[in-house]
Amino acid sequence: MFLLLMFSSGAAIFSNNHLYATNQQKVSGIVLDQATGGPLIGVNVVIEGTNNGTVTGINGEFELAISSDSVMLVFSYVGFLEEKKQVVAGNYIEVFLTPSLESLNEVLVIGYGTQKEKNITGAVSYMKSEDLEEMAVTGIDQTLQGRMAGVVITQNSAAPGGAVSVRVRGTTSGTSNEPLYVIDGLPVYNDNSLSANLSPSGGGQSQSIMASINPSDIESISVLKDAAATSIYGSRGANGVVLITTKRAKEGQTRIIFDAYKGVQVISKRYDLLNAREFAQLSKDAALNDGFRPYEGNDETWPDIPSFINPDLVEQQLGEGTDWQDEILRTGQMENYQLSILSGNNKSRYSIMAGFYNQEGIIKKSDFKRYNLRTNANTNVADWLEVGTSVAISRSESNIVPTDGVEGTSAIIAPALSYLPVISPRNSNGFYNVGTPAYFARLSNPLIGINLNDNSTRNNRVMGNIFANVDILKDLTYKINFGIDYNDNEGSLYAPRYTQAGVNPSESFRWKQNNVENMWLLENTLNWNKTIRDKHVFDLLAGYSAQEFRTEREFIAVEGFPNEFNTTLSNASTVRGSTGGGFAEYALISSFGRVNYNYSEKYLFTFTLRRDGSSRFGSANRYGIFPSFSAGWRLTEEPFLPLPESINDLKLRYSYGKSGNQEIGNYSSSVNMYPPEIAYAFGDTKLLGTWPLTIPNEALGWEETTQHNIGLDLGLLNSRFELTLDVYDKLTDGVLVLLRPPLLAGYADEYWKNSGIIQNRGIEALLSGRIISRGIFSWSSDFNFSINRNTIVSYPNGENNGFPFELDENGRIGLTLIKNDEPLGNFYGLKTDGIFTSQEQIQAHSKDGELIQPLAQVGDIIFVDHNNDGVIDANDRVVLGNAFPDAVFGFTNRFSYKSRIVLSVFLFAQTGNEVYNHTRAVLENLSGDRNQTTQVLNRWQSPQNPGDGVTPRATKYDNNSNRRPYTDRWIEDGSFLRLRNVTLTYNIPEKYFDKISLSTAKVYITGQNLFTLTNYSGFDPEISSNGQNAYFPGYDLGGYPQAKSVLAGISVTF
Amino acid sequence: MKYLTIILLSLILLGCSEDFLVRNDPTSMNVSSFYQTENDFLLALAGTYNVLIRGDNYNRTFWQYYTIASDDAQPGDDIDFVSLYGQDMDNFTVKTDNVVALNVFASNYIGIARANTTLNRAQNSGLNQNFVDEIVAECKFLRSLYYFNLIRTFGDVPLITKEVTDPDLVDIPRTDKLRIYEELIIPDLTEISSVLPETRTNENKARATSGAAKALLVKIYLTIAEENQQYYSAARDLALEIINDDTYALEPSFKDIFTRENEFGQESIFEINHISGEEYYQREGFGQGVTQPQRNGLGSYYNIAYSPRFKGPAKAGDSLGAFSFSGWGFAAPTTSFDPRNDLYSVPEGTSLVELYDENDERKSATILDYYNEAEEMGIPVDKSISPYNIKKYDDWEESMNGEADDNYILLRLADVYLMFAEADNEVNNGPSTEAYKYLNQVRRRAFGLDINTPSEVDYENLTYDTFLDAVYLERRLELAFEGHRWFDLVRRPERAIEVMLAHGKTNISRDRLVLPIPQYVIDETQGVIAQNEGYD
Asked: If you measure CA to CA, which chain B residue comes closest to A675?
């Protein structure tokens, strides 16, 4: 091709000279790439209506002799839109060619292969590498947020390396709802729950297992959404499939790319907390309201805390007091360095990528580091044999400060916010203040947990595969692929004796866990590609694979160290409790096939079929079959349809099929014996005994999702505007439910059964356009939205079976009920109706002469007796909101000036979701024994000073249960609009680095989360303290606060 | 080369067999790989016996029911228990959501399931036939006992005799109780009384013997004979067989029966073996919302659950300052003159306490006269609590944590003597010499007399009716708090109603002689299991 160009160019120059000889007039100019601003070499420049023309030279410039004063020139170049320009003789013109973005011919990665976008009949979202590059994030899962219609990403924890939840088209499962990740053909382990276990200290903060993969290595991401696309992954496809392809070198290319960025982070929002005087006043009010004495400053171990009898004196002595947010927060930092070398010739191609990422979180001590190395190589051993490999090695290290959780755990956010402002971080001897005076709630100094606990995880991961492509016949290719994923996690906690995490406060202890996961995959596929008579295009796939996964885990807790310096395992004198661990494995054998057929790229059909055998399924139900069918009709190819000229592409799609979710646990179908324990004595010796734990369920199987999808792809004005619209209906049958065996069966333990039905229906759309693309300025825009509605169609016994429905003391569960015909994620609780402002009002709040709230006083909360039975109890609970958003939006705009300066702005929004703000329930409990937000300054204080009418009086004992957790007081609207990312890039003109053999260079500055519009009162509405748990989403137990960050970077290519 | 490569690669395709997909948890024993060796079956057998010591079976809940329902005891000083369930059981106002009823129902089906599974698996194990026969026989003994307890507590119950492998298999209605007796229990017990050994070595002394099977069968014959008189002679004959078997003999002294030294003594036919120890942990009970200790090592609850709820010395001889002792006071012996309040008193002449003769040694071995005893020990008497407590299992040497060593004797020879006397009186329509002999031997021992020498406490010159009354009285005095009184009344419904009415229980009726089927079970089977008459 290159040679051909040279040749034609030479010919053109020759003819050019010829014309020049006969006429003295000429035009000249330069042809530039609209997208990059760079010169285009070898562009054909032809005078319209003639064969006379030339091509652009090495600088993109051309000169052409013309025979008249003015001509129309036609500029054409492969991959770019044709451009026409009227030129006057003697002028120099600047011409920008717009990349044709022939996305219709773009090839997308699908399961076990690729397909032209225009021929795809399923619902597939994909992400361009430029979007990928803009986001400075730790994990690939985070990059997807807001970019794809129908893919909803929630950051469970904003901690460095923190986990995210990924939901493709809603929540379908009672077990795992995370999609399957396939990296370069290797389905990998993505269960964050095991990494969460790495910290014994609670805190609910899980680390993302995907954080071990460097986002900079990635070339493209496709997300398969409907059954037509996912059923090729059978029993693992129901939650969607994320296909990730890493960068590989192309033929004839040698590039060395160096990227670096560095930035800072600060907390994006803080709580306004009471200062020392306000707190003292509140504490005094709370005591006096209940007839107790205020704190009188008489605790001998706390000489620095004055009496609260006169709060003004507290201010005189302590000033504002301590804002504990200041104590635990810092300015975070992040930096990333990546060096990539890509090189290839017609025989071999390789890429080597090495990176280092380092983040120091905004909470002191929390951090995340990742070192990674990737090598991808392919070589053509013979003209019929290509061999290749991908190997990625990474190590990540993280110091964890547990955040999510309530007082009494080692989590630090809620306790730090409620720790007393009258206590200073250190006492007069320079030691940390520990605890609180006995008068107040038992809280711990969060700095002790941060600074003295050592809570860390380390992860080593090796992921790689080797494959061979064999061309058996002209159209028939065989591929064999063998891959492994080895993941070694280590968690360690050291808790000195005076920190909360030590279970026994008198002893320091160390806890250590090791968790090793091993996976291997062997996969064989045959591919047959054939076009018959230019119209019948066949692409057939048949495959067979076997996969085995194994995890081993062990842990130990020790105590009894000689001192606080020798705290390794070997220095401990005793083992605390028993050591433990676990072992689990599963195996999967699959065969699969796909038929793609199209007639003249007009009528498109795809059939897929997969048969999965899984060791996780019961013996009576070992194999599952997952078929799908889809069809597409490209109306623009129909000559008889009178479509307007402006429509260059119109495709209707329909698909139907089944896919499954095999995340049902490893041995759930088989029944274990009760671990032998002392059961009886036949004589004088105690004997062990055992019995079956529960009823066997040999029919246990996958959760099966049947999905219909109707889609439309529209391209307007030569694909300048594109619309993709999908409507789907997903019905998941056999949702796993934990059931109590019938009492008559005589088993005590619960068993798993496929018995729920959950439906998800939704609409998603992606609209993209090059709104302005002429001249020196361009503006392109991507807008996507998705709406998903979830319904529990059927659940055993109609509701809530097997799930705790009362709120536990940690506020962690409860609130959320499962009911037929209602969506998952509903919050249930009591409604409130402001506060009692008079005694008469309390009297009037009665039923048949009996007071509904007999213990209430003026200034207490009014609870609504919903069922009108005269008692406030669990039967008065109503739906207070839902944790899932009504709609999610992503809006990306990219502005380019002369292709030199590019500004991209990415907005992300979700609406209609509620959050249970447990942190606020603590920070507005008005007990006076812990710090509060300034909202409590609006409390009822007296009939003359009734406050805002919503905030109740201060009370130490709270006889009316104003602060009970399950009420609408703590359910808040979690809608938000966030400026997720702004990046300003300057592409340095080549003329500045011609001499130093750079081919491109850019510098950029990025701001992330610069603002968030929300009514949510907590740190951030995007939170899920219960992680990926399907049943209890939307809980804020004091998560790691979101940060806003600014960073600057450079990227150069040699 | 090309084709060689293809062939080599294709070979990699092969080699995955079906076994690849069979994975068992190596950290646990799987049901499908268990039940192979004799040791496996001994573990399973211990698990089947284990139900006897569960807190929701004899070791508390079941005991509570039959003790409090009878005229021997009423709810004690545990306020929660009394207000929740105890009062209802005492007054025959039990409701269908009663957790005690639920736990008794559930725990016996747990026992039945374990027995079914163990015996089914043993029969198919291919192990040594003698070993299998013995395992099967013991499972049948335990299964008979669990069914017997279910039937006499609830009436007709669903009959399950196989390992349950499908939840739908137990969605079955109740089977007529006589059918369960005649088609399952009686043939099983008859069969195993020739399979089980007559005596056991010391290491196996708690395991069922042929005598235990026979004694249980006598009790069952007696239970169904009210409806089918022919069983009286069966009961009489089988009881005599046990009596004439020199394996068993009465203890010379009544109080020796319950001492630690005399566990599995000469009079004992079957007893639940408790051993104190450290293991103590709680598991969620089957009752909704109620957490109950269910497995607690092998210790017994009899002393802590029924000991007085007062503070006293940790054990006898401790200094008075050591006020650390407190029982739970779930049940207290009835009395006609409770000094606290008339409400606690039952009609005169119907309380256990006043029925004992002054010289009857059984009284002091059965009942703790707390006010007097405390005074003697110099403990300040707390007169807000029940004056009497159950003493049979009150081992003051034990710590009060549910870890006592007291065994619970289910079947003993004196019971068989009295069953013989009753059956014989029925067969002959009046007492024979033999009937007098065994009734009087029991009575003489209670007064510390030689059992073979006629005495002034002997019964004589009785009619059929008065002899039956005498047997009932002796059974009540002799076997108090051993689990017989209530069921002795129930098996003769007219007597039961008469006695309980006289005892002041005006709610008693034929319907109230059984507990309601727990509503939980009716809901779970969606009504396939019907409720007992008179409950809704």
From this structure: B28
How far is residue A361's CA from residue A373's CA, in Å, rounded to a whole number?
24
CB contact under 8 A, B47 and A691: yes
Helix (H) or strand (E) run with residue A907 in it? strand A901-911
Residue in B331, B274, B282, B280 with CA at minimum distance from that of residue B59: B274
SS3 B167: helix
Q: Is the minimum CB–CB distance between A746 and chain B shorter than 8 Å?
A: yes
A659 - beta bridge partners?
A: A705
Q: By the 8 A CB rule, do A757 and A727 touch?
A: no
Nearest to B54 by CA among B368, B389, B298, B419: B298
pLDDT tens across B317-335, in order?
443 333 334 566 778 898 8
**Cα atoms in the Cβ-side hemisphere of radius 13 Å centred on B296:** 24
φ, ψ of residue A336 to 5 degrees: the values are -145, 135
Structure tokens at A872: 């406030």
A425 close contact with B: CB closer than 8 A: no
Q: How many other β-carbons are positioned within 10 Å of the β-carbon of residue A476?
A: 14
- Angstrom distances, CA of residue A983 to CA of A101, A135, A163, A801, B239: 22, 9, 24, 49, 96
Helix ranges (DSSP H) in A519-593: none
- Compare CB distances from B29 to A585, A683, A690 and report the shortest one's residue: A690
In whole angstroms, what is the distance from residue A183 CA to residue A464 CA?
9
Q: Do the chains contact at B206 and A478, CB–CB below 8 Å?
A: no
Residues of B in contact with A687 (CB under 8 A): 42-43, 46
pLDDT in tens, B231-289: 999 999 999 999 998 999 999 999 889 888 889 999 999 999 988 765 433 333 333 22
Who's near B508: CB < 8 A, 6+ residues apart? B92, B496, B497, B500, B501
Cβ–Cβ < 8 Å for A230, A702: no
Cα-based distances in Å from B301 to A126, A785, B54: 66, 64, 10
If DSSP codes are grouped into helix, strand and coil, which group holds residue B452?
coil
The model's pTM:
0.80
Closest C-alpha among A343, A337, A355, A336 to residue A393: A355
Q: Measured between alpha carbons, how far is A334 from A28 in angstroms, rounded to an integer?
A: 49
Record: contact A587-B20, CB cut-off 8 A:
yes
What secondary structure letter does DSSP report for B513? Answer: G
The whole-angstrom separation of Cα A274 and Cα B106 is 55
Please check whether residue B33 touches A, CB under 8 A. Answer: no
Structure tokens at A927: 């007990």
> What are the tens digits of pLDDT across the range A202-238?
434 556 667 777 888 888 889 999 988 999 999 889 8
Number of H helices, E strands in chain A: 12, 51
- A221: tokens are 């991401």
Beta-strand ranges (E) seen in A635-741 are 647-661, 677-680, 687-689, 703-716, 721-739
Residues B460 and B439: beta-carbon distance below 8 Å: no
Hey, is the C-beta of A620 within 8 angstroms of any chain B C-beta? Answer: no
The two tokens of residue B322 are 């050591």
The 10s digit of each residue's pLDDT in B402-423 is 567 788 999 999 999 999 999 9
CA distances from A377 to A355, A380, A384, A484 (A): 18, 10, 17, 16
- Rounded Cα gap, residues A170 and A790, in angstroms: 7
Closest CA to A459 of A103, A237, A208: A208
Residue B90: left (phi > 0), alpha (psi -120 to 50), or beta?
alpha
| Nearest residue, CB atoms, A682 vs list B207, B295, B518 | B207
Of A498, A407, A517, A395, nearest to A456 by C-alpha is A395
